[in-house]
Specification:
This protein is of the alpha/beta class. The chain has seven helices and eleven strands. α1 crosses α2 and α5 packs antiparallel against α7.
Length: 219
């Protein structure tokens, strides 16, 4: 089990190692395995990269993101420019049904709405706008189309989890509440937690995944 001091050192080194991050802009504090990130950044894409970098470090139980985006002068764009760039990005992206997603931009904050069939389409839309110049934040309000759940869907989710990592799947419970899949239990890393969530989202008919999995690092 890593001490908080060791975790802070490891997170700091991981931020320094990632070439997409300017680690001098980020403050790192750790208490009881919870990492708090603070600072002012030039782009929203960097904010996301910092959060992901912290989650990659073994021993991190949770991440509190207290980073805000202050666009550098060279990164500033009008809301109309950002909206047009987002719409253009959607039209050229093979995984995004552009005609089913609406874009609204206010002071650099992008709000997405509409309805799609799959979570991967919803996620692809968010990824596409996250790295656009001029964006300071993203609200993804795109809904998933409600369809009838196939039979034995919770069993099929468990089978998918086992295909990804059988050992970790033994510690995960899947329950259905309407069209929501609820994951309970523990995993050894944030990567496993995200993989389990992705497996649940791939189930047909699931419109929400509640990920209550705890990251518990075993010795």
């Amino acid at each position: 089990m890593k001490s908080d001091a060791q975790l802070k050192t490891d997170v700091t080194h991981e931020l320094e190692w990632d070439p997409s991050i300017n680690a001098t802009h980020v403050g790192v504090a750790v208490q009881d395995g919870v990492v708090t990130l603070t600072g002012h950044l030039d782009t929203f894409a960097e904010k996301y990269a910092i959060e992901r970098a912290a989650q990659r470090v073994e021993g991190v139980h949770a991440v509190a993101v207290e980073l805000d985006v202050k666009l550098a002068p060279s990164h500033k764009r009008s809301d109309s420019e950002v909206a047009m760039a987002a719409e253009s990005m959607f039209k050229w992206h093979a995984l995004i049904p552009a005609e089913r997603i609406q874009v609204r931009v206010e002071k650099g904050w992008v709000s997405l709405s509409g309805e799609v069939d799959w979570e991967y389409q919803r996620a692809a839309a968010e990824r596409a706008v996250r790295s656009l110049t001029g964006v300071v934040g993203v609200d993804n309000n795109v809904r998933l189309r409600v369809v009838a759940l196939p039979g034995n869907i919770s069993t099929r989710i468990r089978e998918a989890l086992a295909r990804h990592a059988e050992r970790e799947a033994r510690h995960i419970e899947v329950t259905l509440k309407g069209s929501s899949a609820v994951l309970e239990g523990r995993v050894d890393s944030w990567a496993e937690r995200n993989a389990a969530q992705g497996a649940a989202w791939s189930a047909p008919g699931v419109t929400m995944v509640v990920n209550n999995l705890r990251v518990v690092n075993t010795p």
